[in-house]
C-alpha cells in the first residue's frame, strides 16, 4: 500500500505532495521521539540504579552504625498496604459490581453509583490524601498508620475493581443466569455458583491493576501511612499482622524513594528503589495483559 | 445488560407453578424461610457495597467543604483567591494567604503540558492506529503501557536528575527547578492516556469513511488528518480533557522539580502548584495555614469536578456518535 501511495503522490500538486511528506515525517518523528524518550527513561533508571542494587540493600534495614542502606522496611510496608487495601476493597468493589449488574432495578440509583464511581476515578490522589488525613487518621482515630493508608487507598482503588468486575460480569451469558434461576436457585445462590466463578478473571485483572496503583501511589501514603524508614515490629501470624497495621507507620517504596531523593539527596539509593519499582510495574503490566487476554477468551 | 426481567421473575415467582410449589413446600421445608432471609441479607449487603462509592464521594465533598471553608471565611474569599502573596509562615509580620500564584501556575502548567503532550500524543496515536506495521504497533503499545505504570515519583526523580540540571545549564540559571521542568514532566506523564484514548477513537472511525476518501483521490495522509481525525474529534477531545485532569491533579512528580516557591508563574521561575502546596506543606503546617491547605484542596476539588463534568459531556457525545 505504501508503494502504491508513493506512485500516487507522483501525480499530485507540489503543495499536496509537500503536505503528504511533511505529515508523514511528523508522524514518524513523534513516534521516534516517544520511543527514544521511553528507552532513555528506562535505560537511565537502570544504569543509575542497578550498581547500587544488592541483596543486602533489599533485605536489610538501614543502620547508621553499621553503615548499611536497606529498603526491607519499605518492601514490607508496601506489601502490608497492598494486602490490607485488597482485603477491604475487594468485597466492596465486587459486591458493588454485582449489585449494579445483577440486582439493581432503580435507574436513578444506578446512575448515582456510576457517577460516584467515575468521580472517584477522576479524583487526584492529593485529594484522597487530604480526606484520608481528616477522616481516617484524625476522625476515625487511626493515627498515621498503615491501616489509615490502606483505607485511603480503598477510596482510590474502588472504581478500578468495580469497573473490571462489571466488565467480566457482563460477559457471563444471560442463559447461564436463566438456567440457574429456572432450576429453582435463589438469586444469591445463582450469583454465588454461576456468576461469580465465571467472572474470576475480571476480578483478578482488577486486583492486578489495583496493586499497580497502590504500589505507584505516593502522595496518599506519605500523609496517611507515614514516612518512617525503620522496621516496625513485625510479628508472625495473622493476629499480629492486623495489630501491626494499626500500630505501625512507615514509608512504602515510593515514599522511600521520595525520602531518599528529596530529603536526603541520596540519589544512588533513590535510583535503586526506582529500579525495584520499574520491575514491579513491568511485572504488573505483563500480569494484567495475561489476565486480560484470558478474560477476552471467554 | 441489566436484569430487570430476572428480578421480576424472582419477585413474582418464575411462574404460578413455582409459587404453588413453594407454598406447598413451606410447611415441610423449614429451610425455605432461612433461604429467603439469606436472599434478603445478601441483597442488602450488595446494595450496601454499591452505595459505598456514593458514600465516599459524599464524605470527600462534605469533609473538604467543612475543613476548607473556615480558612476562606477568615481570610476572605476575594483575598484568598486573588491575593498574590502566599506567606503563611511569616512569623514577624502578618502572614499572607493569597493563592492566585498557585491557581495560575496550575493552569499554566497544565496548559503547557497539553500544548506539548497532545500534538505528540495525537500524532503517535495516528501512527499506531493507521500507519504502523501491526507488530511494531503492538510492541510500542506495550511500551507506552509501561510508561503509564511507572510511579510518579520515578518521573520526578528522573526530572530532578536530568531536566533540572539541564535547564540550569541551558539557561544559565542559579537553579533549574522551574515551571518549564514541571511542564515537561507533566507532558510526558499525560502521554500514555492521550495516546490510548485517541487511538481508541481513531480505531472506531468506520473504514468506509477512509475508503471513500481514498477512492476520491485523497492520499493516505490527507485521509488520516482530514477525514479520520475529524471523525474521531470528540474522542480526541475526551483524551485532551482526561490529560487536563491528570496534569492538574499530579502532585509528587512536580513537587520534585518545580522548586516550590509561590512566585507568580514564569517559565523559568521556581513555582508552586495547587497540588504541590498541599503535598509540600501538609507535613509541617498548623493552625490557619493547615486550614488554608484544605481550602486549596477544596479549590482543586472544584476544578476537578468541572473537568470531570466536561469529560462526561464528551464521552456521552462520543457514545451517541458510536450508536
**Any idea how many domains of chain B?**
2
Derived from helix and strand composition plus strand pairing, the structural class of chain A reads mainly alpha
Number of domains of chain A: 2
Largest sheet of chain B: 2 strands, antiparallel
| Poorly predicted regions of chain A | none
Poorly predicted ranges of chain B: 1-28
Shape of chain B: globular
Count of DSSP-assigned helices of chain A: 14
Could you give the distance between the termini of chain B? 16 Å
CATH class of the largest domain in chain B: Mainly Alpha
Adjacency order of strands in the biggest sheet of chain B: 1-2
- What would the CATH topology of the largest domain in chain A be? MetI-like fold
- Write down the CATH class of the largest domain in chain A: Mainly Alpha
Count of extended strands of chain A: 2
Rg of chain A, nearest Å: 25 Å
Commentary on this structure:
The complex is a heterodimer of chains A (298) and B (323). The radius of gyration of chain A is 25 Å and the shape is globular. The mean pLDDT of chain A is 86. Chain A folds into two domains: 2-52; 55-297, MetI-like fold (Orthogonal Bundle). Chain A contains 14 helices and two strands. Chain A is an all-alpha fold and 298 residues long. In chain A, 79% of the residues lie in helices and 2% in strands. Chain A has a two-stranded antiparallel ribbon with strand order 1-2. Chain B is mainly alpha-helical and 323 residues long. Chain B folds into two domains: 4-75, no CATH class; 96-322, MetI-like (MetI-like fold), CATH 1.10.3720. Chain B has 14 helices and two strands. In chain B, strand 1 and strand 2 (96-97) form a beta hairpin. In chain B, helix 11 (233-249) runs antiparallel to helix 14. Chain B starts with a helix and ends with a helix. The interface between A and B is large, with 103 and 94 residues.
Amino acid at each position: 500500500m505504501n508503494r502504491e501511495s508513493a506512485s500516487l503522490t507522483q501525480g499530485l500538486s507540489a503543495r499536496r505532495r509537500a503536505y503528504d511528506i511533511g505529515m508523514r515525517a511528523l508522524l514518524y518523528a513523534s513516534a521516534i521521539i516517544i520511543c527514544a524518550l521511553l528507552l532513555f527513561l528506562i535505560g537511565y533508571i537502570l544504569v543509575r540504579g542497578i550498581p547500587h542494587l544488592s541483596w543486602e540493600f533489599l533485605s536489610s534495614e538501614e543502620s547508621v552504625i553499621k553503615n548499611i542502606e536497606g529498603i526491607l522496611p519499605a518492601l514490607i510496608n508496601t506489601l502490608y498496604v497492598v494486602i490490607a487495601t485488597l482485603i477491604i476493597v475487594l468485597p466492596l468493589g465486587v459486591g458493588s459490581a454485582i449489585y449494579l449488574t445483577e440486582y439493581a432495578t432503580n435507574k436513578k440509583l444506578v446512575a448515582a453509583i456510576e457517577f460516584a464511581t467515575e468521580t472517584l476515578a477522576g479524583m487526584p490522589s492529593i485529594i484522597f490524601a487530604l480526606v484520608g488525613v481528616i477522616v481516617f487518621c484524625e476522625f476515625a482515630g487511626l493515627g498515621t498508620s498503615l491501616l489509615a493508608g490502606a483505607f485511603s487507598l480503598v477510596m482510590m482503588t474502588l472504581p478500578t475493581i468495580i469497573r473490571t468486575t462489571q466488565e467480566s460480569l457482563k460477559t457471563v451469558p444471560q442463559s447461564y443466569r436463566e438456567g440457574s434461576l429456572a432450576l429453582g436457585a435463589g438469586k444469591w445462590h445463582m450469583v454465588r455458583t454461576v456468576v461469580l466463578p465465571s467472572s474470576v478473571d475480571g476480578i483478578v485483572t482488577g486486583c492486578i491493576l489495583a496493586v499497580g496503583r497502590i504500589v505507584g501511589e505516593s502522595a496518599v501514603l506519605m500523609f496517611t501511612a507515614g514516612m518512617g524508614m525503620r522496621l516496625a515490629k513485625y510479628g508472625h501470624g495473622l493476629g499480629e499482622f492486623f495489630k501491626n497495621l494499626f500500630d505501625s507507620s512507615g514509608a512504602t517504596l515510593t515514599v522511600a524513594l521520595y525520602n531518599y531523593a528529596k530529603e536526603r539527596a541520596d540519589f544512588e539509593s533513590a535510583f535503586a528503589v526506582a529500579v525495584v519499582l520499574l520491575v514491579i510495574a513491568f511485572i504488573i503490566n505483563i500480569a494484567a495483559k495475561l489476565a486480560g487476554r484470558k478474560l477476552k477468551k471467554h | 445488560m441489566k436484569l430487570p426481567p430476572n428480578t421480576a421473575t424472582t419477585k413474582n415467582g418464575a411462574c404460578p407453578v413455582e409459587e404453588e410449589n413453594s407454598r406447598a413446600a413451606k410447611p415441610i421445608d423449614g429451610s425455605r424461610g432461612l433461604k429467603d432471609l439469606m436472599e434478603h441479607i445478601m441483597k442488602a449487603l450488595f446494595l450496601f457495597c454499591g452505595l459505598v462509592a456514593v458514600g465516599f464521594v459524599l464524605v470527600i465533598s462534605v469533609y473538604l467543604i467543612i475543613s476548607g471553608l473556615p480558612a476562606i471565611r477568615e481570610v476572605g474569599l476575594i483575598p484568598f483567591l486573588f491575593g498574590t502573596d502566599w506567606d503563611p509562615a511569616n512569623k514577624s509580620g502578618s502572614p499572607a494567604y493569597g493563592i492566585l500564584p498557585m491557581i495560575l501556575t496550575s493552569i499554566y502548567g497544565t496548559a503547557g503540558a497539553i500544548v506539548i503532550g497532545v500534538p505528540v500524543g495525537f500524532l503517535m496515536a495516528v501512527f499506531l492506529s493507521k500507519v504502523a506495521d501491526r507488530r511494531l504497533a503492538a510492541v510500542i503499545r506495550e511500551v507506552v503501557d509501561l510508561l503509564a505504570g511507572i510511579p510518579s515519583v520515578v518521573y520526578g526523580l528522573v526530572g530532578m536528575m536530568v531536566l533540572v540540571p539541564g535547564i540550569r545549564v541551558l539557561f544559565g540559571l542559579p537553579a533549574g527547578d522551574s515551571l518549564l521542568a514541571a511542564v515537561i514532566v507533566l507532558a510526558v506523564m499525560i502521554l500514555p492516556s492521550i495516546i490510548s484514548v485517541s487511538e481508541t477513537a481513531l480505531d472506531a472511525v468506520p473504514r468506509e469513511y477512509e475508503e471513500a476518501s481514498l477512492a476520491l483521490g485523497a492520499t493516505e495522509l490527507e485521509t488520516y488528518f482530514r477525514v479520520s481525525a475529524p471523525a474521531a474529534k470528540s474522542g480526541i477531545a475526551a483524551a485532551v480533557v482526561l490529560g487536563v485532569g491528570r496534569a492538574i491533579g499530579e502532585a509528587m512528580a512536580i513537587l520534585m522539580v518545580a522548586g516550590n516557591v509561590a512566585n507568580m508563574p514564569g517559565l523559568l521561575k521556581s513555582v508552586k502548584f495547587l497540588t504541590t502546596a498541599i503535598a509540600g506543606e501538609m507535613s509541617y503546617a498548623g493552625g490557619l495555614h493547615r486550614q488554608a491547605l484544605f481550602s486549596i484542596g477544596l479549590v482543586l476539588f472544584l476544578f476537578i469536578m468541572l473537568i470531570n463534568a466536561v469529560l462526561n459531556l464528551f464521552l456521552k457525545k462520543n457514545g451517541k456518535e458510536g450508536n
